[in-house]
Amino acid sequence: MNERVTGGPMTPPALEEFLHTHVEWRPTGDVMEPWRSQQGRNRWSLRLNDFPDEHLYTLLINGRSVGSFDDWPVEWLKRDSAELMPNTG
Question: Most C-beta atoms within 10 A of its C-beta, which of 9, 45, 48, 73?
Answer without folding.
Answer: 45
